[in-house]
Amino acid sequence: MRVALEATLEAEPAGPSAELAAFFEQYKRRAYQFAFQMVGDPDDALELTQEAFLRLHRHWSRRDPSQPAAPWLYAVLRNLAIDLMRRRAVRKQVGAAREPEVDQRVGPEALAVRRQLDAAVRRAIERLPAEQREVLLLKDFHGLSYAEIARVTGTTPTLVSSRLHDARERLRRQLARYL
Questions:
Q1: What percent of the chain has a predicted confidence (pLDDT) above 90?
Q2: What letter does residue 178 receive in the DSSP assignment?
Q3: How many CB atoms lie within 10 A of CB 161?
Q4: pLDDT over 50 at 141, yes or no
């Protein structure tokens, strides 16, 4: 991803592309993570991330500099993911299959419990309705404000708040035995 996008960005004169290059460096990991959380496949997530940044590059000069670019990026990623899932009829999977950071003071039993809890959380998030899952991911994993999430999803901050509340309540119920 980095090589293709950097080559595209370097081919442009200084100016908007320099700003976009800095934005890319700041958001490339978060963009990939969000794409992966939406589609559940690393190759598809990489493809979506590349396409999203290329689309931003093509339209960067038209963006309103008074507005943050991150919600725009997440909206593009969201739309690309929805298109991909429609085309491939793929069931969404959430969460990276990554190992938790290992604390050397934690024994194997505690580590096993942590892995079990991580898996339960991933499954619970995966079972959320798509509208609840996306607002939960954008708020709790990517730190967007209610207003930014509303722009990304094409809804209102009130609806975002309601969906987030419902998602958290559903997670609490599903994970009650672990809490």
A1: 39
A2: G
A3: 15
A4: yes
